[in-house]
Amino acid sequence: MPKREIDNGSIVPGETYRVAILSAEAVDEERDSQSQSRSNTSESTTQSPPVKQGDKRTLSIESIGDQGDGIAKVERGYVVIVPGARPGDEVEVEIQNARENVAFAEVIEAVSSNTDKAD
């Protein structure tokens, strides 16, 4: 990954991302399409994150990240990282920091946890 992507916060070190490798021809076609799109409208087509700082949500933790934090997904596959949560936990969280591609949240309350189901 280019260092500038990490420096500007688009990429978080240690996280997993999906990438595509495109031919130069496909990239040129995409640029032409984007250029034409921009000339047809003055509005930005960039979608904003589906959460914002201060939002409260109930999330189901789906997996665990490389750093041991819980990972949940919300609208459009947007990732929310929840320290201290484990796969199978259902937690109420407050969003602490929302970026373009990932949000970080703090657990307010455990609705149910994986340890509750162990009996």
> Runs with pLDDT <50, length 5+?
none
User: Which class do the helix and strand fractions yield?
Assistant: alpha+beta
Proportion in β-strands:
25-35%
N-to-C CA distance: 45 Å
Order of helices and strands: HHEEEEEE
**Count of spatially separate domains:** 2
Mean pLDDT: 81
> What is the CATH C-level name of the largest domain?
Mainly Beta
Neighbour order of strands in the largest sheet: 1-5-6-4-3-2
Main sheet specs? 6 strands, mixed
Q: Quickly give the CATH architecture of the largest domain.
A: Beta Barrel
Please count the beta strands (DSSP E, at least 2 residues each).
6
Protein name: TRAM domain-containing protein
Pfam family, one: TRAM
Task: Explain the layout of strands and helices.
Elements: H1 3-7, H2 24-40, E1 56-60, E2 63-64, E3 70-73, E4 79-82, E5 90-98, E6 102-112
Parallel strand pairs: 4-6
Antiparallel strand pairs: 1-5, 2-3, 3-4, 5-6
In brief:
The chain is α+β, with helices and mostly antiparallel strands and 119 residues long.
